[in-house]
Automatic annotation (TrEMBL):
It comes from Actinoplanes couchii. Transmembrane segments: none annotated. This is Short-chain dehydrogenase. PANTHER family: DEHYDROGENASE/REDUCTASE SDR FAMILY MEMBER 1, DEHYDROGENASE_REDUCTASE SDR FAMILY MEMBER 1. Gene3D superfamilies: NAD(P)-binding Rossmann-like Domain (3.40.50.720). It comes from the Bacteria.
Amino acid sequence: MDRPETIEETAELVTAAGGTGIAVQVDHLVPEQVRALVERIDAEQGRLDVLVNDIWGGEQLFSWDEKLWEHDLDKGLRILRLAIDTHILTSHYALPLLIRRPGGLVVEMTDGTLEYNSANYRVSFFYDLAKTAVLRMAFAQSKELAEHAGTAVALTPGWLRSEMMLEHYGVTEENWRDALTAEPHFAISETPAYVGRAVAALAADPEVARWNGQSLSSGQLAQVYGFTDLDGSRPDAWRYLVEVQDTGKPADVTGYR
């Protein structure tokens, strides 16, 4: 994607947060590379407790303004491969290791809750299909993992203040509120750490199986587990989108973060 960020920097962030970050370059569309990754995890760690399927990379491929018959077909099919095939390949090779021990967790990352995506067209045919398919993949895996005492859920962040989104608005994390002049509803946005804390809360929950097969959001889980975003707030983006933004009301995050 020609971004300046690196997987090594991400691993350093993990280590700085108290874990042990190990960067491994893998093309998740190449079965041999995914299999080798899982074999390395098995050899070095001997177990896999949590699999977060968060592979995407289609931001620069889809067009909001083109219909299915107008959209570049190669780019559209590439989007589906990046969003769907990568997750299938990874789960195919990783789940045998994950189910060796009871209590394993699979988190399928997507954009949008089941409720929201079922009721709304996500602007682009290929984007809509990609993000909705992941919801179903989580549900299907939940059925297959249940007999192995495993859990699978779909999880979505809200309006994410990713590096790419901050760059789009010409701001940084330090002055992100300056973007509200151009897009007032950006006030409901959240850092990537927020959904990361949602994953951590799920992984630490001894009763995580209660969520098996469900579609969850960072804002929803924050209310249950009590974690916050980095600024101490608890943005509930999907409720805000339905009740404020999509109804045409002026931006006002009162009661939503």
